[in-house]
Amino acid sequence: MIVLKIKYHTLILTGILVTLLFLSPLVIPVYWVILLSEILIMGLMAVSFNLLLGYAGLLSFGQGAFFGLGAYTAALMLQAGYENLFLIFLAGILVAMLAALIVGFFSVRLDEIFFAMITLAFGMMFFSIAHNWRDVTGGSDGLPVFNLPNLQLFGLDLTFYSPISMYYLIFTTVLIALFLLWLVVHSPFGLILKATRENKQRVSFVGGNVRKLRIVAFTISGAFTGLAGVLFCLFNNMATPEFMHWSFSTKPIIMAIIGGTGSFFGPLFGAGIFFVLEQIIIRYTENWMFFLGIILVPVVLFFPQGVFGTLQNRFFKQRSK
Amino acid sequence: MSTGDVLQIKNLGHSYGKFKVIEDISLSIGKGEMSALIGPNGAGKTTFYNAISGKFPPTRGKVFLNGNDITGLPSYRVVDKGMCRSFQITNIFNDLSVIENVFSPLIIQQNKHFKLYGNIFNDQQINEKAMQTLEQVGLTDRADQVVANLAYGDKRLVEMAIVLAREPSVVLLDEPTAGMNPEETENMINLIKKLAKNSGTTFFITEHDMKVVFSLAEKIYVLHQGHLLACGNPQEIRANEQVQEAYLGRKVHA
Amino acid sequence: MDFLLLNILNGLSWGMLLFLIAVGLTTVFGVLGVLNFAHGSLFMLGAYLCMQVMQYFDSFWLGLLLGPLCAVIIGVLVEKYLLKRVYNRDVSFQLLLTFAILLILDDGVRMIWGSGYHVVDPPELLAGIMTIAGQDYPVYRLFLIVIGPVIGGILWSFFHFTKWGKIIRAASFDNIMAEGVGINVPLIYTLVFALGTWLAALGGALAAPQQSLVPSMGEKIIIESFIVVVIGGMGSFPGAFVGALLLGLLGSFGTMFAGQLQMAIPYLLLAAVLLIKPNGLFKKGV
């Protein structure tokens, strides 16, 4: 059966990818390990974002706010001297989740461009607060983090000052997060969410409360975006208001669409393509944004399913015509 | 108003601003009955359907389903209470497969739509139920196909399956044969007849095609300019002069 | 009292500029159905092109005339070769395409003119300072306050009294109908986008003597224009006018009342309007 075949392929490919990611720090230069860390973090953000765009059909322009909230929570706790990394992760997720619940509660009744605009508005409110509330957030300079606590796990005492150990912290966290998101996407909830994307009126006329479904999706997406923010704060030793600005919120959109919004891993690949292209292009020119624009145009016009989505369709799926 | 009535509508009315689209409609439909709502274009059929199915609350009047007041409930609550509807323009999940389309109402019915883990294809109960529903409408062989690739008639059947999946006590069908060719229409009529006979579900349909109406309905309600003009069995309606006038009058002008 | 007057004048001059940008954005949205992210970049491009023309001919007025026209050429190419392909696509693709155009224009300008500041002097006629009610005020800003309603009035007359204006209005309500009565809809789309580009670039050229030119100057104004357009009602001409004045005045008075949180006020307003009256304060239409 076709269904089984797809699963089989996906499983093997995922296994190969995870192994490669796990082993890569042993082979590739440290510079690329750092880059890979960033790809994983932004990839997590893009996959979380795509729960909204790809699965619920909602274009959020305010994801940066939740990323920033995760980052600021981590930075503030580290500055206050909290030593427990688990607690910091948990707090970052909870803060972002709560904010997403509130923003989602108001936003999800709107669709399309209106949804994009209201999430942009909420995101920029958070940006304004982060930018102007100097006493707490450090204003436009952001909040630096000087000390990274150790992690006691299985009798081991792990430090995260080397890029390699930081990579493994990020790798493990992102892996767990992606697995959880994968579960959500393939759950009954995930199917109904896709159904709301296809036809929200129909969902409502078979008994589904579309607003509640969307709020849950928005909250989950916000929570995982917050986790990505926590990771980025540890990785970058910094939380800045820029994370919350609308221009930062365009990053997951770009990554998701480059990679393909129709598949779970598309946005992750999109993040990879994004950063690798950036690395290649900035070797030759300062004007990376110009070339990003030049690349985006054909992607938008001719690859509606994104690079990964197009490849996947060509090789594995004969499902849709 | 007997106790066997599943759907009771009392003095229902709806206006947009000052314009009254439907007014003072009262009717009750008994369990297992097959009734039809007809009327010339613009008589208010779709507004009537929307007002009782929760698309928007009616401005006046009451709707009771199995004795429960469902007036003004949002659509998803109306479905929970046991009434499900189809639409004039096919309303399905285009990018999902046929069986996933049928899963959706079942997941919601079993309150699993907030379940964040587990694969629905492994849920035996829902799978069996979905296949049963597909069997009813004759789509079992197309279960894995993406709906967007189906022929028009099959898409209408998918919508039928979605509507029937939760075994509602009342099914509203808004022009179930709209846009179908004669053969598809014939099949749809037979399907509805079969379903009504086997399941005891109450059907309430609106239809343009008089042939369909007269071959299906036991009781016919005629809507004209927002008012209930007549009601009765097919023979009575055929013989009713007012009804003829309403339709013919239109035709002459058109 | 003087302080009040000063704030009103500042608010009005910024509001009028915003109106020129927003009215183009809202017309393009009303007819084409695309919210153009690159609209702010066309504003920026207008300012740079005006500066460039000025350097050749040493005349601000020629810059004001020719700069925006050069931008229109780019606008027409963008519509004919890129935007045209996404009219029936998902809103995320439309936004991302126009965002890509924003990136290309912003960074393209940076490649040509560098990322440093440029300054454009106001024309001699408008360079001085005037005294109003005992308050010194730059003449150029007063010029902006006057020119906004003048251009707005011309546009409004165009939409209401000329054949093409009426056709555009018809197309913004129902383009299928427009096609049915024999209107060349693709041509209308190109013309409307050209008009929108011209308005944005004209706004940029007018803004040039008043603010320093940087490649990112479009990014601030595009978000404010989004807010104006949504508040006023997407596709509404009077809405753009009222929204722009409201936002302009909020900008100058906000600092007085809200201090630190002044920056958040436009966004609060945007969210509030979307929640209470999602279609904006005015209904679609010119």
Overview of this structure, please?
The complex is a heterotrimer of chains A (321), B (254) and C (286). Chain A is mainly α and 321 residues long. Chain A contains 14 helices and 4 strands. Chain A has helices spanning 2-27, 30-56, 63-79, 85-107, 112-132, 134-137, 163-185, 188-198, 200-204, 210-236, 246-259, 266-281, 288-302, 306-315; strands at residues 143-144, 151-153, 156-158, 238-239. In chain A, helix 2 packs across helix 12 and helix 3 runs parallel beside helix 5 (112-132). Chain B is an alpha/beta fold and 254 residues long. In chain B, 39% of the residues lie in helices and 24% in strands. In chain B, a hairpin with a 2-residue loop joins strand 1 and strand 2 (19-30). In chain B, helix 3 (98-109) packs across helix 4 (124-137) and helix 4 (124-137) packs across helix 5. The longest helix of chain B is centred in the last third of the chain and has 18 residues, at 182-199. The radius of gyration of chain B is 19 Å and the shape is globular. With 286 residues, chain C is mainly alpha-helical. Chain C has a single domain (2-276), classed as ABC transporter involved in vitamin B12 uptake, BtuC, CATH 1.10.3470. In chain C, 73% of the residues lie in helices and 3% in strands. Chain C has 11 helices and 2 strands; from the N terminus they run ααααββααααααα. Chain C has helices at 2-32, 39-57, 60-81, 91-113, 139-161, 163-173, 175-180, 185-207, 217-232, 237-258, 265-276; strands at residues 129-132, 135-138. In chain C, helix 1 runs antiparallel to helix 8 and helix 2 (39-57) crosses helix 3 (60-81). The model of chain C has no long low-confidence stretch (mean pLDDT 86). At the A-C interface, helix 5, helix 11 and helix 13 of A face helix 4, helix 9 and helix 11 of C.
